[in-house]
Amino acid sequence: MIRRQHDATAEGAAAAQQASGRRSALWDIAETLLLALILFIAIRGVVLNYRVDGSSMEPTLHNGEMLIVNRRAYMHVRLAPLVGWIPGVNVEEDAVWYPFGPPKRGDIVVFQPPGNSAEPYVKRIIALPGEHVAIRNGAVYINGQRLIEPYLSEPTLWRGMTLDHEYVVEPGHVFVMGDNRNNSSDSRVFGAVPLASIVGKAWVTYWPPDEVQVLSTPAYAFQ
Which stretches are transmembrane (predicted)? Predict the structure, then answer.
């Protein structure tokens, strides 16, 4: 009788231990899945995969290439609500602070274009808010100075025409163009792009594997 009770007790302990092990394993799986979900949401909030469609950015980007886009590159904070309440501190109502820096000339950006296009565009920032843009004799001039663009292989025309044109970029906007200047629908067609329409800054090309590159911002020169 004592032996049977001992055996029953041992079997019960083993069953309890086995059930506890199953619960522990299930909890570990649940923790792993939850962590993976949190990481996925966090990563998607920072980066975006983008597929280049078309040849407007050749020779820098090619049709079908896959990009990693930094969605937080131009994250900014309005300063007025942040520090405007401090006595003696005067901040303009539209002043903003960019922790990682504002958009720069030469940045390649993905943005929602004006019009009815359902797909974002990828272009290069050429002029910044308030700048004067002119196209003369196949070259781009910013505030009267010729912009040297080593990535171009053809002269820059305005809307496919040889006529000279000028444009002043509105506040809160940037002027964008494709590197393949004569095969690109860009700010020469639809005007400057609102900063609010920018999805993010193109960071790295990762596909195809033999064309992986970090997309750096050129150091421009003027003449």
Answer: 29-47
